[in-house]
Specification:
The complex is a heterodimer of chains A (150) and B (114).
Chain A: H1 11-17, H2 19-40, H3 48-78, H4 85-89, H5 92-96, H6 98-114, H7 124-147
Helix pairs in contact in A: 2-3, 2-7, 3-6, 6-7
Chain B: H1 11-37, H2 39-45, H3 53-76, H4 85-102, H5 105-108
Chain lengths: 150, 114
């Protein structure tokens, strides 16, 4: 890929050529921000609304990442670059990606329903479900990232 | 301060979301296991030849969640579901754990020699 501003090709240049990879990196950044807000949620319940916004963005990023990755792989199969796409897609991470998607939807729905009352005593199971969902989604995304390296 | 100054919480929606996710995760690992065990089910899940059964598995997840969430909202609407909180949370945790463990390749590809 010809660099635009740099004299030589760079790792960043190659990374930016893969849109799915870019979205994955951005998703991890947003999830990191969400983790921080979940830690501070008890101190300031008003953080619910920025959390909802972040989760919405993350869900859209995840959908975009899945669509780009799967569609891109499909195009490669059409071009003959991948002989057996179904085998190539039969990896653990293509199954695991469903988990952060579902968990983020649960977290967002719970936060929208309860709002700032999520930190009250009666909402404890939902509060724990929300925190757990965000943290497990992060762990799943990290696992997916690490698996893709091997 | 006074309970009637709090906005109304539609707990049934939150409960439905949690239960729907839990059930969808259970369906996900079961369908993944079946796809790897049965050629007939593998073919049924193959909506796109290029993508293989993954196309059906993803669609199944989305449809299952939307349907289960809708059913949950309709069933629990307007009811007091406070006594279901802890159980739903427990089932949610259990389902997440089951999904994580049972979608490990070493587990679902396990075959006993014979």
């Amino acid at each position: 890929m010809s660099p635009l501003l740099l004299a030589e090709e760079s790792l960043i240049g190659w990374a930016l050529a893969d849109a799915g990879l870019v979205l994955f990196g951005v998703t991890l950044l947003f999830v990191g921000a969400t983790l921080t807000l979940t830690i501070l949620l008890r101190r300031d319940p008003k953080l619910v609304w920025p959390l909802v916004g972040l989760l919405t963005i993350q869900i859209m990023l995840l959908i975009g990442m899945i669509v780009l990755d799967v569609w891109g792989a499909r195009e490669m199969a059409t071009l003959g670059a991948v002989s057996d796409l179904s085998t190539a897609l039969a990896t653990h991470r293509y199954l695991l990606i469903q988990l952060p998607f579902l968990l983020m939807v649960v977290a967002e729905t719970t936060l929208i329903v309860y709002g700032e009352q999520i930190v009250e005593r009666h909402a404890r199971p939902y509060y724990l479900a929300t925190i757990l969902s965000v943290w497990l989604a992060f762990a799943a995304l990290v696992a997916i990232g690490m698996e893709s390296m091997f | 301060m006074f309970p009637f100054f709090h906005k109304r919480i539609h707990e049934s929606v939150a409960l439905s979301a949690m239960l729907a996710a839990a059930l969808t995760l259970q369906i996900a690992w079961v369908s993944n296991w079946l796809v790897h065990r049965s050629e007939l089910i593998r073919q049924r899940f193959t909506l796109d030849e290029a993508l293989g059964p993954l196309s059906g598995l993803y669609l199944k997840t989305v449809v299952a969640y939307v349907l289960l969430f809708g059913i949950g909202v309709l069933v629990f609407r307007g009811r007091d579901v406070s006594h279901w909180r802890e159980r739903a949370y427990g089932f949610f945790l259990f389902s997440v754990l089951m999904f994580v463990l049972l979608t490990l390749p070493i587990v679902y590809e396990l075959q006993i020699g014979g």
